[in-house]
Here is the input.
Amino acid sequence: MSDTVETETATAAPGTRPDTAPAPAAGALQRLRRPRTYLWLVGSVLLLAFPFYLERFWLQAGLFAMAAAIGAIGLNLLTGATGQLSMGHAFFLAVGAYSYCILAGESSTENGHSLTGLGLPTWLAAILAVLLAGAAGGVFSPIAGRLRGAYLGIATLALIFIGQHVLFNAGSLTGGFNGRAVPPLSVFGFTFDDTEVVVAAVPFQSSEKLWYVALLALLLSGLFARGVLRGRPGRALNAIRDHRIAAGVMGVPVARYRAGVFVLSSMYAGLAGVLLALVFQRTVPEYFGMILSLEYLAMIVIGGLGSVAGAVVGAAFVSLLPQVLTHYSDSLPLVSAPGTGGLAPGEASRYLYGAAVVAVVLFLPGGLTRLKKPGEKK
Here is the structure.
């Protein structure tokens, strides 16, 4: 008997018990057997294969959705996780989009405006544009660190009016009412423009090429935000949201965390603005108005506050709905093509996701991602 015990002890790893050694392998095997794992695998394969099968319209719709998802993740960190209401998210999207155009573009004359451009490499311009959006959030962060709730919402609303005034009147930087063209992204000599590149007998143009850039950006943004929310900063942010005074008593620097998450949210918005500019291929001041900020709030409410998955689901719903209504406007009742009279697809989509916001608030406060199977713990 003693010989058997000694043999088992000798084969076990130092500092562990023999009966607990296989636990990590068993846990990994159990995770592989979950249906969610197979759904992730199938979804990943489909996302990678879409550029080979979808037409340009649906690829552009998907690009809009991915860019919106990145911006919604940033707003969810601020509003969903920290409880800070922001109405100025569109301002930081505009900072990212126009900063990229100014940094990457060349000085030229367009629509009667002498446009200023620094002509930097486009990949460097994209990085600097995101940092400039964060710097703009840093300028406002002392206010964000001290205000909360509706007071912060009103203060950030002022950013929209300031941004619209600058975008429409600083013609040498923004191009005025007509906007300015967006230089195509170029990385290591590969340009993401409409020049055809044949891949597996499929012609790749700007939409197909940018698809993988947006997919990578969304993946990295989601993983980083998930790490923030599941780590120590996320617990501090949730404590500030749930009870600000108690969080301060526990040693959480409330003002510093509020200011920091505002800067991080601004950087996410800047990255979304750069992607939107690359997809649109032209920046227009009218797009970055109050309606865009309200749409981002609708995204995180419909999808689920304080959740990365909720931001992605809500962004897909709000951004794809007008695209779908526009595409099928001829066959849908009460919806007509833009410019033909009747209810335009854009207006119809706002009614629908406005009703979705009301329904979620009344019947599903946790958002669409909080839907659980019967008997499953919440």
Observations:
- The first helix runs from residue 2 to 11.
